[in-house]
Fold these 3 entries.
Entry 1:
Amino acid sequence: MAIEYRITLDDEHQFSYKIELDRQYDPQSAEATPKWTRLTYNQCSNCPLSKEAFSHCPAAVDLHRVIEDFNGLPAIKRAQVAVRTPEREYSKQVSLEEGLRSLLGVIMATSACPLLGRLKPMANNHLPFASSQEFILRTISLYLARQYFNFREGRRPDWELRGLVRQFQQLQLVNQAFWQRIHDTCEGDSNLKAFLTFFSMSSSMTVSLETQLQKIRPLVMSAEDSGE
């Protein structure tokens, strides 16, 4: 199963990526990547990987080609982005920042990083160009679906979403470290702003979850449910 991205800047500059959703970390391929992809280079404080098993950060290895392709380009540059998933196709003219945010997100969520890999259910149902509201709704819906199966299968469900908050608190540490990892290598702001947008959407799950819940409540509650 794969997701394909095609980003067109003009008649002469087109970039294509095929993201296999079930891929493994390849140590030999990792050796050919830049030094900023090494595991110990601004390694996340909560990283569970050892340099004996992983010489390089799996997410950085997967991302380095995209980072280098768009290095030096402005975030506001317009791009035509076409996305093909196994179910459907999407096409939209967006800023390079928005297109990259969508691409970087699906690559990170399907990397061999065990922390980012917790977002893989989102990638398996990838929605390009998702708004912050769509991101919140899909994240909470998938988490609650998991709790329902925990309940059915005899495990304790987390209906209060405490585990979801802890999960995104861990991802915040990854976000901070990854920002440091790529900051020095990025000349333009397209990559950096794409990461910032992705990170800010993730942070909303920890610093303002209750506010986000109130925003999506009208989307899932009928007038009868709301007592109106």
Entry 2:
Amino acid sequence: MKYINNQLLNEVTEKANKNPRKRMNHNFHENGEELLQRMLNALEPGTYLPPHKHTEKVEVFLLLRGKIQVLLFDDSGEIIEVKQLDPILGEYGVEIPAGIWHTIFVQESGSVIYEIKEGPYVLGIGIEFAPWAPQPEEIEEVENYLDSLSQKVKELK
């Protein structure tokens, strides 16, 4: 039996806070071959998840605590939808169909999602990263891009 409780959320959050990427996974699946990939993903403000799409598979995020925004993009990189997730307000998650460009904007420290993806997982297969967004190692470009996205999200409200 595997349990999801405050102790586990706190442990994964602590690891995310210590990680330079400002996020940390805790996998429930035993390996990448399983047909259902399940994990906690602790996310801190400022983490960068490059916009991407899954070419053939569905992805689900359920927010267990904190606040995040899920951003959806068109093929040119323009934001087409912003979904605010906040369990206190009754907004718990999203199911993202295959082929939809998306990323997550973390708004509150200690945010943790339960993420479900169809498997099997093969590194680099079935995922496409947006050509119009910077790569994670491009630190200055990432900071500028995140600032730009933040401004666009404010303008959409």
Entry 3:
Amino acid sequence: MKIVIYADLQKHYLDELVKQLPGDAEIIREEPGSGDEWRQAMESADILIGNPPVDHLNPIPDTLKFWQLENVGFEQYKDVKYDGKVANVGDMSASACAETIVAGILGFYRGVHLMVRNQVNIEWLGEAVESQLSILGEKRVIILGSGAIAEQISKILEAFGCSIQMTAKKDPDADIHSYEELLSQLPDIDLVVNTLPGNLDKYVGKEFFDSIKEGALYSSIGRGNTTDESALLDALESGKLIGAVLDVTESEPLPQDSKLWKLTNVILTQHTGAAHKMRDRDKVAKFVDNVTKYLENQKIEDEVELSKGY
């Protein structure tokens, strides 16, 4: 059995991964180069762990039976032709992502972003900012999506006392199942949290922001391309939105000339939603668990379909 590892891991976690994989396997753990080096590395491979560039995957060898992805999202691979089993990392980053976006939302409502600016400027305003503060627990919320991240966000916001609806086309447990139904609900919503996958390009656009309640807060921990940034900026600058909390943007890194940098009603967390110092530890545990389940013919909870892109 041959296992190729193309994963972004610190060396000691890469060592730990190799140690926990089957001892009789041939393991290629150095990041392969392009062209002939990659083809040689993948030749007769049975298992692939990681996210190689798309142009390295044409063609995928017939021997490859299991592919363990390194992230939740994988829209870059939706056109890759592969018939074997594929797994992503499932709910591995759900807690971190939920904590990041809720921290930004809570910080916005409680004016933390304003107080940080005042601190930098050595300016004491105190309760003069009272009119800009509100209570998170009183908010009516729509979460776009109903996956693991959305569910974790919902749990946290419910604990604050928020009223929550979730959207999904096919999830019977979701509250809203169509775009038209979503638009009809937006005039009564205080907060929207986007957790959508990248296959829904510009799902949140002009029609969405035209329908939303004036003074609502928009936040996104989904894929950056799911929000039409031009429409978002129009809604922010016109005052239709009270503000935005964004972990993701259409282009990353965010261009220096983007207006989002300077808008005082925007919090940017720079796509750190899933990040924490022990993430590589969690990746190794997820990789080993899914590879073991594959080898033992057990059900892999994190199995996905590449063609769906999420």
